[in-house]
Design brief:
This is Tyr recombinase domain-containing protein. The protein has 328 residues and is mainly α. It has 13 helices and 3 strands; from the N terminus they run αααααααβββαααααα.
Amino acid sequence: MARLKRAPIMIGVFSNLAEEFIRFKRSLGFKYESETKCLSRFCRFSQKRGIVKPEISRSLAEEWISPREGEATSTRSHRITCIRQFAIYLNHLGYEAYVIPEIKGLTRDSFVPYIFTREQINAVLQAVDETEPWEVAKNMHLALPVIFRILYGCGLRVSEVVHLKYKDVNLEDGILTIREAKTDKDRLIPLSDSVNQSCIDYAEKIWWEKDNEYFFLAPDRTMISTMTVYQRYRRYLDAAGISHGGKGKGPRLHDIRHTFAVHVLQKWIENEVDLSAMLPILSTYMGHTSVRATAKYLRLTAEVYPDLIKRVESSCAFVIPEVAYEGN
């Protein structure tokens, strides 16, 4: 018989605040399971040291994150992240809490996405628009400008775009239906007026025999391959004057999706939108399995636009994750 797992118990002066913090994080879509165990241990740690006020002093924080014998680097990094986020949350509520500075080099290196500037995106789209007709690649010069506008304008994965069927593109309402994508879930993607108009202009030049034919047809009326889009993408980068570091170094085609997310967040910050309320919406729109994946774009936004992110640090810095980036 399987033994039931008991939920970590919070004790001591930080117990109620820790539970409130966990509920808040989960309300944003974070699972916060291992973090709950970590905070439970911190509560016991604080109680043993006789802490009677819900404040995190520098000495308490530094003692908590000090290296432990036989402890993996990743485990210590996790402890540091938890206490940093909790301290930021406490500061937001008005409690005094020392925020441990970020310690670089504790987590394994991860690929850092390339974030295009808006000028670079415009240069790439201009290069796409100059695609010349080619007899053996019939209609590709019509399809590619629309494909790239959807990639940037909607933040879709390239596989989601090329898999679109004619029946999935509602030109009247400007909505795409993404079916059984990476997360095996369908979702609806509203188009901007300009992207929808690009789709309409393209559709006026193409003829489909059946509703289940691909919206972007290859010369043999099959699906345009992702490799074909990627090969063209490399040419467009060159034409736009953007150097490529080689295989695996980017800018990758998938970085257009990352750029979409960062640019959306940048616009929201400029417009003083409540990020904690909007992140779940962006998460659903992008087809992420959790808000955690979407929140990582806040870290990218902070790196690309440091002045902008300062505007929201006082109100929702505890939403910004401190984990290694994983692209999806």
